[in-house]
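[audit] Reproducing an earlier prediction to check determinism. Same input, same settings, fresh worker. If the tokens differ from the archived copy the diff job will pick it up downstream; this log only records the rerun itself.
[audit] input (74 residues):
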Amino acid sequence: MKKLRHPSLDEGWSIQIYSSDRRLLLFLTPAHVWLFVAGMSLGALTAFVLLSNTASIQCSNVVPNTKTPPIMID
């Protein structure tokens, strides 16, 4: 006789958000959260690299003005 296997209870957690009429609005599992965190991290890294790159480009193109403007006498 085969033993019945109990359903696994260690599958993790989930968040379920319902509307007022008991319709499912949002269902989050750990995989969703890991993907969200990975996306936010990648976006922050990309923004940091692009902003630091544009800041260094703007600083290198600045040439100080050493000439004085001519005096305008009417």
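[audit] rerun output stored. Observation attached for the diff report: The CA atoms of residues 34 and 60 lie 39 Å apart.
[audit] end
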